[in-house]
Amino acid sequence: MKKNLLILYFIFLVISSSAQPIFEGKYFSGSGDTTYIQLLDKAYRMLRPDAELENLSMLYYPKYDGFTEGLPKWDMWWIQNSFGPTYTLLPFMDKAYQTFILNSQDLWFKHIGNGVRKDLFGYVGPVGCLCDAAIPEGTVYRQGDAKHHIHDWAYGMTTAGIILQSELLLINRNRDLINKYLPLLEQSADFIDLRRDTVKNIFLMGTAANLLAPSYAGSGKLLEDGTYEPAYLAEISVNYIAALNRLIELEKFVGNFKKVDQYAQRKDKVTEGLKHFITDEGYFIRSLDKDGTKHGLYGAKKHGYFEMVPNHDAMAFRVADDEQAMKIYNKIKSIPGLRPYTLTILNYPAYDDMYEQGGLFTYGKWVNGGHWTTTEARMLMGYYRVGAYEDAKASFERILSLAPIFRLDNGLEDFGNKIQQDWLPINAVYDSWGAPGGFLRGLFEYEYKADGIMIYPHIPPKINKLEQKFPIYYGDKKIFISTIGSGEITSVRINGKLIKEFSPTALFLKPDSKDKVIYVSFGLGNANAEKKCKVNEYKTNIPADIEFWNPYTIYTKSEKDTCRIISISDFKKVNKFYNVLRKKGFQDAYEYKLSQLILENLQAIYERKKLKESDGLVKLPLNSQIAADNLYISTLNNLYFGLNRHLQKNSKTNNERKIASLWHLN
User: Fold this and answer.
1) What is the pLDDT of residues 43-71, one digit of tens each?
2) Nearest to 463 by CA among 400, 513, 393
3) DSSP class of residue 528?
4) Are the C-beta atoms of 659 and 81 separated by less than 8 Å?
5) What CA–CA distance (Å, rounded) separates 527 from 108?
6) Cis, peptide link before residue 214, omega less than 30° from 0
């Protein structure tokens, strides 16, 4: 009898397990909370060409083979706007996207302050100063809006720029690039450190030195020269620690241990100085005046607002430990005014210490109580750290709702409830991709080091199996990750081999083998990591039918007269080139990845036509529909133009010459 009961119980367990809902998506698969897994799938769909959703490739800008900030085109590349999306998306960027980011960020370093060079306003930037934003022709060393003549240098932007470029270099792992940029990053780190009070070990900053400037005006006390008295700004300390952490890893990578020691000592001092900004409840104030007055002490009669940036950044970049991160989150959660429409706003209530009021400075708009998805990206990282998965889900869903209607605008007004440029037929602003970026990177964090990656699984408890069908990148290696079970890490397999070196919350992966592809399986809770070491990676699949190569693929007959025609013969050439590169073993080359991106866009157009024919797309106003459809065509043409121009340039390496010859032979 007892034996029969055990058999029945075993059968029950098997049936219960097999009854779990399963989702098999294009980029994610898994079981358990399939609603969440579907959202993860849609997040990655926003990165790659997609028939329904606005996607990242649409912001490609062939002028400098990079990204543009927004469409209609914002003609500069901003640090504050790109900070959140770039940081959260970098692990997932292949050689094409990495190159776009590298070329975009090179605009900042090409024009880095040197004590002589003038910016577009005529200001001479100090050595190591980065910028608010840059274009190929020049840069802006101060935040360029409002009264820029009273603004301090771009300290908040420079700090963020160090983080972004260091993160890119740690992922890319190209020694030549590191040797090129590391001296410039060191200049920027020293530029910031010159403002450190060597007694308090915090940074004295003037008007608009913050990242989302010009909402900060120091102490708010007007001086005789028309500027405002500087104050100690918390966000500089928080992000400078994050920047030094990455610089230390780069110095380790090149073997410069004297610099490692120097930066480690500097980091320890700045970390010790954080005590001046941390409240009894564990969150960070915004700033501290010379006389001890606190700005951002929530509930105080004066300057009693809550400031988001130093708090979610401390969570996202692990400047705050787990205990403090939870305290910060609990404080944010206790203030409904910080998330009136699901998304976080920058501050609650309104600032009482800005140098202007009204207009753009009105509460609920721009940098005073507005919403910017570049900051939401870091908040999403924070949500995952503390297990606030439903908050992360709700945040991403809000931005996702704008993707099928082509309204990915930023910043959002009315406390995050309204797009800013609603008079345009469509919107596409790079900030918005901070939402899918944070929603994806938060799952595992990916803390890149000189010799490996620290991976922190943050898997919602209702998901009992998860598989990423796309890789994260570590130099020339591709890493695929899957999980089974729920809870803390109890077992790990790497390429099928069981390993023992991990903690309940993290794995330090050292991809030092010759394997170009690495499969990591996490067993969570009581589950055992899976032995299989193969993920069903999504691959570009060009249909063989004649209709696919129809130049009017995207349009119905009634729409032809309102839309541009594309030259399909050029894209047939790309397809042939792509296949030749694959056969010749150039799958990791930039030219291959860019060709793949072009073909995926062509495939998205083909699939979009099918959806239109079956009424499978969200209905848009006619002018928006035409603009959205034309965006697919202009993206395709821009990418082709970029590839063709790249292959016409003088090649530097043997591989580049071989690849260029294959293009010209077609």
Assistant:
1) 999 999 999 999 999 999 999 999 999 98
2) 393
3) P
4) no
5) 47
6) yes
* pLDDT, tens digit (0-9, with 9 covering 90-100), for 612-658: 989 999 999 999 999 999 999 899 989 999 999 999 887 778 888 99
Q: In terms of C-beta density within 10 A (0-12 exposed, 13-18 middle, 19 or more buried), how is residue 495 classed?
A: middle
Q: How many residues does the chain have?
A: 666
Cis peptide before 425 (omega within 30 of 0): no
DSSP label at residue 74: P
Phi-psi category of residue 327: left, alpha or beta, with phi > 0 → left and psi -120 to 50 → alpha:
alpha
Using CB atoms within 10 Å of the CB of residue 229, give its burial: 0 to 12 exposed, 13 to 18 middle, 19+ buried.
middle
Residue 411: cis peptide before it, omega within 30 degrees of 0: yes
Separation between Cα atoms, residue 358 and residue 3, nearest integer Å: 78
C-alpha distances in Å from residue 119, one per residue of 112, 122, 152, 184, 505:
10, 5, 14, 18, 47
With CA atoms as reference, report the closest residue to 276 among 211, 163, 197, 189. 197
pLDDT tens per residue across span 95-153: 999 999 999 999 999 999 999 999 999 999 999 999 999 999 999 999 999 999 999 99
3-state secondary structure of 447: strand
What integer is the mean pLDDT of 146-164? 97
User: Which of 7-11, 180-184, 592-596, 619-623 bottoms out in mean pLDDT, i.e. has the lowest?
Assistant: 7-11
DSSP 8-state secondary structure symbol assigned to residue 527: P
d(CA 294, CA 303): 7
Asked if 413 and 473 count as a contact pair (C-beta separation under 8 A), the reply is no
Give the helix, strand, coil percentages of the chain, each rounded to 5. 45, 15, 40
Backbone angles phi, psi at 268, to 5 degrees: -60, -40
pTM above 0.90, yes or no: yes
Burial string for 64-87 (b: 16+ CB within 10 Å, else e) reads bbbbbbbbeebebbbbbbbbbbbb
Beta strands per DSSP E along 124-275:
133-135, 138-140, 204-205, 231-233
Whether residue 559 is predicted with pLDDT greater than 80 in this model: the reply is: no
Gyration radius (Cα) of the chain, Å = 25
* DSSP class of 569: H
Q: How far is 639 from 59, CA to CA, in rounded Å?
A: 10
Q: Is the peptide bond before 126 cis (omega within 30 degrees of 0)?
A: no
How many Å separate Cα 415 from the centre of its chain? 22
Q: What is the pLDDT of residue 13?
A: 42
Of 284-288, 331-335, 437-441, 635-639, which range is least confident?
635-639
